[in-house]
Amino acid sequence: MITGIFTIPLLIEKLDLKTDDIAIYCKELRDKTKTADVSNRGGWQSPPLTGVHDVLNPLFDEILKLAETYRNFCYLKKPLSIKDAWININKHRDYNVRHVHPRCLVSGTYYVKTNSKSGDLNFHHPSDFSMTYTWDDSLISEFKEHNSGTWILPPVENQLVMFPSWLQHSVDDNSSDEERISIAFNLDFN
Fold first, then answer.
1. Per-residue pLDDT reduced to its tens digit, 5-36
2. What residue numbers bound the domain in which 28 lies?
3. Are 121 and 111 a contacting pair, CB within 8 Å?
4. Domain CATH number, residue 131
5. Residue 1 counted as domain residue
6. Is residue 5 part of a domain?
7. Which listed residue, of 26, 133, 176, 181, carries a Cα 20 to 30 Å from 34's Cα?
């Protein structure tokens, strides 16, 4: 018998939100706010969203609904709430370096505007450095969930992704001429 151990829960859900309205709101906020420099190289990251953002309320409602699904799957003892959220806008050649989200439980991103060349989301296996030395391209005929050091997830417009905050991730450079707009968030216990 072969079974999996130490799996990493990844929630992927297509939503039905009005991305055009959200994109306009994100660009308006960018035009009047200085970028925060966290994981972005180039591009614009908003400071944490505070106050009222009515156009984002449907997204926040979806995040909380899906957080409950994620919580139940992971057997977390208490409900999750949104700790913080921010907007990312990457132009041509902008990207986000490998990072984690400390001091929270679950993180995620929602894709407002993307295309197939706007920068994939890369998840890095916690042991990927060791795996590189022992399970490399010369030994593996096809990479799957159970033998990959990196898992690539192309961005899909109107899609939400949740993952453990400790999971290292990065965003490839935007090789298109269109802006890649996403909203990232962290969840924690109330």
1. 889 999 999 999 999 999 999 999 999 999 88
2. 11-139+148-189
3. no
4. 2.60.120.620
5. no
6. no
7. 176
168 inside domain: yes
In this prediction the pTM is 0.94
Note the Cα 137 to chain centre separation in Å: 27
d(CA 53, CA 57): 7
- Cα separation of 41 and 27, whole Å? 18
Sheet holding 44-45, edge to edge: 11-14, 159-164, 106-113, 180-189, 80-90, 44-45
Q: What is the DSSP letter of 117?
A: T
Residue listed under structure tokens 């001091």: 103
Query: For residue 42, is it within any domain?
Result: yes
Paired tokens of 163? 């993952």
Long-range contacts of 19-22 (CB under 8 A, 24+ apart): 19/112, 19/113, 19/157, 19/158, 21/55, 22/55, 22/56, 22/59, 22/112, 22/181, 22/183
Each residue's pLDDT tens digit, 132-145: 788 888 888 998 88
